[in-house]
Write a structure and sequence with these properties.
6-stranded mixed beta sheet; 416 residues; alpha+beta; Elongation Factor Tu (Ef-tu), domain 3; 23% helix; Gyrase A, domain 2
Length: 416
């Protein structure tokens, strides 16, 4: 039986594989010269991993270490085929979405963006969204895997409103640049200075051109540094990508101004930045209060929306059964996704199971400490709570953190 095809394939895939092949060739030549061995004949390509059924994503292009360094010190560029796009048009688009989603949109004007959840009637999360308002529409970035279901469920509430909900996941594409030199990279690609000036803070967006291509830029600092995500025509993505990768710093000996980075480096940076992720750290079974993102996604002062009664009741009367929390391993052990968490007993052992690790990484910013996220029962989520994690058949110490967002921010707020 043939496997189901992915929902999308990156229009940049051939470029990634070509870069990886060149890097492999250089390394093989160096090995040949050093060891006197015959030249390698096996052609290598970039490392790809499946993102559910949505797409294959670039895991690593060159090395995780150099790609992570670009996020923290330079400009790291990302291909995001796993992301989908919805466009909402029509004169009633703000009023309609205001009645539907968890965020307050009354102040949403062109040039601003907000994050929000879309819930079902039971208050469970259907999608985690980034909404960018431009002159004639709202562009919603969300996981590609839930784009079609989100359009269908939102559309079920349309009656006579002047609203059009369009699945633009095939026509529009998502790429991003993160790092302290992100804005400078865009300036090097002839981005209008007024547009860049408007992107000095998280939550801003702008319509402009990059390398002559119409784009919408949205500032979202999800990796603990300056982050700019681009929404553009899928057919134009290679042109912008080529403009980025063709820039070199002559004064520094021809070093590229942007480095292609994969998911593995991005994952390290987003965990360090304290960003739980939908599809990884929580999913469609979660309630907003269980995600650790309630403050950035949900307004407690707006009017009614789908699932609002459940959110309000939990906010005023009770606590969630479990919450996504930050963890730090005390012993340098590396428990992976799915590792169980237990209460720490007085004799150094473990008591009842109270959670599960959802993602983890080795943090360069914390001296190679192992950090991550876990879904933990509410009674054991207080900062500094000591737990035990199962790692390779052994129990290791783990400590609940107030937040990983306390890590120092890396980056600059201007293109200078």
């Amino acid at each position: 039986m043939n496997a189901q095809p992915f929902l999308a394939e990156s229009p940049l895939r051939s470029r990634h594989d070509a870069v990886a092949a060149r890097e492999t060739g250089r390394r093989s030549a160096a090995v040949t010269a050093a060891r006197g061995e015959g030249a390698a004949t096996r052609r290598s390509s970039a490392g790809w991993i499946a993102w559910g059924t949505a797409a294959e994503v670039l895991a690593v292009c060159d090395s995780v270490e150099t790609e992570y360094a670009a996020i923290r010190r330079g400009a790291a560029i990302f291909d995001l085929p796993q992301r989908g796009t919805i466009e909402v048009r029509g004169a009633d688009r703000i009023d309609f979405l205001q009645r539907m989603i968890t965020q307050d949109l009354r102040a949403l004007q062109p040039g601003r963006s907000v994050r929000s959840f879309w819930l079902n009637r039971k208050g469970r999360i259907e999608a985690d969204m980034l909404l960018s308002a431009v002159s004639d529409r709202i562009i919603i970035d969300l996981p590609r895997a839930v784009a079609a279901s989100t359009i269908a469920s939102l559309g079920a509430f349309l009656f006579s409103e002047d609203v059009q909900i369009i699945d633009a996941s095939q026509s529009l594409y998502r790429i991003a640049v993160h790092g302290p030199r992100a804005l400078a990279l865009l300036a090097d690609c002839a981005v209008d200075s007024a547009a860049l000036d408007g992107l000095v803070r998280d939550g801003a967006c702008a319509e402009t051109k990059v390398a002559g291509v119409p784009v919408v830029l949205t500032r979202c600092d999800t990796l603990g540094t300056v982050g700019i995500e681009l929404s553009l025509a899928a057919s134009d993505a290679p042109r912008v990508w080529d403009a980025w990768t063709s820039l070199h710093d002559v004064a520094a000996g021809g070093v590229p101004r942007a480095r292609v980075c994969g998911w593995l480096a991005m994952n390290i940076a987003r965990i360090e930045a304290g960003e739980p992720m939908f599809e990884i750290d929580f999913g469609t079974a979660a309630l907003p209060h269980e995600t650790g993102l309630i403050e950035s996604r949900v307004s407690m002062t707006k009017g009614c929306y789908l699932g609002q009664e459940v959110v309000a009741r939990m906010q005023s009367l009770g606590k969630p059964k479990q919450v996504v929390c930050a963890l730090r391993m005390d012993e340098g052990a590396f428990p992976v996704e799915g590792s169980q968490l237990f209460v720490a007993s007085g004799d150094g052992g473990a008591g009842d199971e109270v959670g599960v690790i959802t993602s983890s990484t080795v943090s360069p910013m914390l001296g190679s400490a192992v950090i991550g996220f876990a879904t933990i029962r509410q009674a054991h989520t207080a900062p500094d709570t000591k737990l035990r994690a199962l790692c390779g058949g052994q129990l290791v110490h783990a400590t609940v953190q107030a937040s990983l967002r306390s890590l120092p921010a890396v980056g600059e707020g201007s293109a200078a």
